[in-house]
Amino acid sequence: MHDHDTSEHLASYADVLAGELPDTWTSTHLTADAKDDLAELADRIWDLDMVAASLAEHPLTQAAVLSRPDGAQLVLLDRHDERDGFLLAAVAPRALPDEAYRAVPEPNGVALADDPFLSAEQVAGDLLARYDRALAQVRHNALGGIQPSQPDRIVLTWQPDGSVATAPADDRAGTILVAHGFIQDPQSGIYRLGGDDTQVQARALREIGPRLDALGIGTALQHPAGRTAPTSAPASMPPTPSGTRTASARTR
User: Fold this and answer.
1) What angle do CA 241, 243, 246 make, to 5 degrees?
2) Low-confidence ranges of the chain (pLDDT < 50)
């Protein structure tokens, strides 16, 4: 194929593949003109097998990026061998610390035949399953001292810089958190409320409790060892025997 034909084929293949994968995926085609984007993408390809070997000999000159709303990404690239089809690899999340990846196996990529419909079945049963496991592990590792929340309980953890962080279990709580000043990191899923203005912070913490409680979600405020709360923290959060402080009057 001519270069133009090859580029069009990769883009159309990626569009069909994205539409056939489970959940919702969108496809973006990066051409040779997007040198910076391709270089950044190559650095994040999460592979130590055939895709890494291919990139060592054939740097990216084009690619198609498949993206899922939760931040997961896959990259489709040329095979550079005598066979038809493409290579597909997982893409590591941005902005997670190196420590989060320790002891997490790479979700190495796969070779796909020149049939996006059959390939979608292959990807869903293999690469996606391994990728989702790896994503869950690195995101959990990135939480550090932040205790994961449950569907019926949000755990808010004071951070050394004075901010408050939490990892809610679903979007119901996330919507309320954002409405009260929390900012979500799309890669880790962690919501943070800055501590520059402790009065604003304390007011936000007071106000989210009743709103979450109305949804059947309790809240708890956790203090890591050696960390004490600002004096402006809500007085309505009495300590519990476990060392956390409950930010809601909800009882079970």
Assistant:
1) 85
2) 1-2, 225-252
Q: Region of 152 please: left (phi>0), alpha (psi -120 to 50) or beta.
A: alpha
d(CA 236, CA 208): 13
Residues 6+ apart with CB under 8 A from 81: none
Q: What is the 3-state secondary structure of the chain?
A: CCHHHHHHHHHHHHHHHHHHCCCCCEEEEECCCCHHHHHHHHHHECCCCHHHHHHHHCCCCCEEEEECCCCCEEEEEECCCCCCCEEEEEECCCCCCHHHHCCCCCCCCEEECCCHHHHHHHHHHCHHHHHHHHHHHHHHHHCCCCCCCECCEEEEEECCCCCEEECCCCHHHHHHHHHCCCEECCCCCCEEECCCCHHHHHHHHHHHHHHHHCCCCEEEEECCCCCCCCCCCCCCCCECCCCEEECCCCCC
Rounded-to-integer distance, Cα 101 and Cα 51, Å:
19
Alpha-carbon span 193 to 208, nearest angstrom: 12
Q: What pLDDT, on a 0 to 100 scale, did the predictor assign at position 224?
A: 54
Q: What is the pLDDT of residue 241?
A: 32
Q: Structure pTM?
A: 0.64
Residue 163 gets the label, from left (phi > 0), alpha (psi -120 to 50) or beta, of: beta
Give the integer Cα–Cα distance in Å for 60 and 45. 11
The pLDDT value recorded for residue 230 is 39
For helices 171-179 and 198-213, the axis angle rounded to 10 degrees is: 140
